[in-house]
Amino acid sequence: MKTLQIRIASYDQMKARTLAVARGEHKPVRGEPTVWFPSVESFAKVLSGRNQELLALIARENPGSLTELARLAGREKSNLSRTLRTLARYGLVELEPGLHGKLIPRVLYDQVQLDVSLHSTMSHSQRPEAGPAG
């Protein structure tokens, strides 16, 4: 089973990590997240229920083109193309070149593992003063 490692981090955290890697101060290790989202909300939007269904459809049916996928999914090809480009940007889908300029969508992972720090994503002013009542 192939798992995509995803982490939630602020823009400043992602930038600091990227610069540390570029300077040679940090060497990514196996199993470290390779895809980063700025918030849980942005992750949830990309991996919405509708997009999860689309990924499952691609994995199950192995469509030979975007036109075939649009027919199977009952969606407009233009909207589907936009969605697939977004999923590809985050490494969830690959759009392989096919014959006659066709793009063939492929799902690259069986599952996603999300790493969220409850401390590093909230500023001090956003942190609750006390835990749940009870």
Task: Summarize the model shown.
With 134 residues, the chain is α/β, with parallel strands linked by helices. The protein is 40% helix and 18% strand.
Protein described:
Strand 3 and strand 4 form a beta hairpin. By secondary structure, the protein is α/β, with parallel strands linked by helices. The protein has a three-stranded parallel beta sheet. It is built from five helices and five strands. The longest helix is centred in the first third of the chain and has 13 residues.
Q: What's the count of strands?
A: 5
Main-sheet strand order equals 2-1-5
- Overall outline: elongated
What's the tally of helices? 5
Q: Describe the biggest sheet?
A: 3 strands, parallel
**Structural class per helix/strand content?**
alpha/beta
User: Strand-and-helix sequence, N→C?
Assistant: EHEHHHHEEE
How much is the average pLDDT?
86
Spatial gap, N to C terminus: 41 Å
Determine Rg (CA atoms, Å): 18 Å
Estimate the strand proportion.
Answer: 15-25%
**What percentage of residues falls in helices of 4 or more residues?**
40-55%
- Report the uncertain regions: 121-134
